[in-house]
């Protein structure tokens, strides 16, 4: 944790969830309103098809809403894509950009991720910028160099603690049940904090740096209370409110 920084726990539902799942979002909202996550801010990022309905369910409450991706342009002939102003209009306040599944499966480059993050900021959304090394890169001792390169290429100019969140997500830890050691997480988050200071100046010391990758109720306390770990981005374990809230309880 970083002194003076409010922790942030966000759920990434990926391509999961139908309108029948809105009850989970309602349960998250009730917990957020009741302060069950202590001082932490809670957010859920359902698929775009559920955003407007979810926004209705959480209106006036303390649960925040995020999207999982956006197009760099505000509008135009981009069949199937969704722009940042559209997400804002649907009720989102956050948008994930540069998730490793998009970097890998959709061949997204750092430059594209940065363009998406800039579009998010322009639309008044906070960008959750994801970075992380592969297993091979970690084994080669290149993890910090890779993440540094990704951040230098992906972070939007002019960002700050209210408009940008960084999520460190080792690719090999996502959905695998594997996690880095607390020592490795501390080392990486410390390196990211130093870099954020270089890029954003004093504001970089207050930007939230999340850890993501196989966070579960059983390991959350060990990971989420480390230096410079200001919360988590949670995939599989965020689909059920009970599991998500058990993780957020690390900040109670
Ligand atoms: C993610 O996809 O952002 C993620 C962290 O997934 P999981 O928690 O399932 O590893």
Question: Explain this structure to me?
Answer:
The protein has 252 residues and is an alpha/beta fold. Helices cover 38% and strands 15% of the residues. It has a single domain (8-40, 55-72, 80-242), classed as TIM Barrel, CATH 3.20.20. The protein has helices at 22-33, 51-58, 84-90, 100-105, 110-122, 135-139, 143-154, 182-200, 220-224, 241-248; strands spanning 8-12, 41-45, 64-67, 94-97, 126-131, 164-168, 208-212, 231-234. An eight-stranded parallel β-barrel has the order 1-2-3-4-5-6-7-8, surrounded by seven helices. α1 runs parallel beside α2 (51-58), α1 (22-33) packs parallel to α10 (241-248) and α5 crosses α7 (143-154). The protein is globular. The structure holds phosphoenolpyruvate (PEP). Phosphoenolpyruvate binds next to β8.
Which sheet architecture does the biggest sheet show?
8 strands, parallel, barrel
Q: Which class best fits the helix and strand makeup? A: alpha/beta
Total number of strands: 8
CATH architecture: Alpha-Beta Barrel
Shape: globular
Beta strand %: 15-25%
Q: What is the CATH top level name?
A: Alpha Beta
* CATH-defined topology: TIM Barrel
Small molecules bound: phosphoenolpyruvate
Annotated CATH homologous superfamily? Aldolase class I
Side-by-side strand order of the widest sheet: 1-2-3-4-5-6-7-8
The mean pLDDT is 97
> What is the CA–CA distance across the termini?
13 Å
How many discrete domains?
1
What Rg do the Cα atoms give? Answer: 17 Å
The level of helicity is 25-40%
Summarize the structure.
With 252 residues, the chain is α/β, with parallel strands linked by helices.
């Amino acid at each position: 944790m970083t002194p003076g920084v409010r922790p942030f726990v966000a759920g990434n539902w990926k391509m999961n969830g139908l309108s029948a799942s809105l009850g989970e979002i309602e349960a998250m909202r009730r917990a957020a309103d009741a302060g069950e996550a202590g001082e932490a801010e809670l957010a859920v990022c359902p698929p775009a098809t559920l955003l407007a309905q979810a926004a209705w369910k959480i209106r006036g409450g303390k649960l925040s809403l995020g999207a999982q991706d956006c197009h760099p342009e505000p509008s135009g002939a981009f069949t199937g894509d969704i722009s940042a102003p559209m997400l804002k209009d649907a009720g989102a306040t956050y948008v994930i950009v540069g998730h490793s599944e998009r970097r890998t499966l959709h061949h997204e480059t750092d430059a594209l991720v940065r363009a998406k993050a800039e579009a998010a900021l322009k639309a008044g959304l906070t960008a959750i910028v994801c970075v992380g090394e592969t297993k091979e890169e970690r084994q080669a001792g290149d993890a910090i160099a890779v993440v540094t390169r990704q951040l230098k290429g992906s972070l939007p100019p002019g960002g700050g603690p209210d408009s940008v969140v960084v999520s460190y997500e080792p690719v090999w830890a996502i959905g695998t049940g594997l996690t880095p050691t607390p020592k490795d997480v501390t080392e990486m988050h410390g390196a990211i904090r130093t870099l954020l200071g270089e890029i954003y100046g004093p504001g970089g010391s207050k930007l939230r740096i999340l850890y993501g990758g196989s966070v579960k109720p059983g390991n959350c306390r060990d990971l989420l209370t480390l230096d410079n770990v200001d919360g988590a981005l949670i995939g599989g374990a965020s689909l059920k409110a009970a599991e998500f809230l058990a993780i957020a309880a690390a900040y109670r």
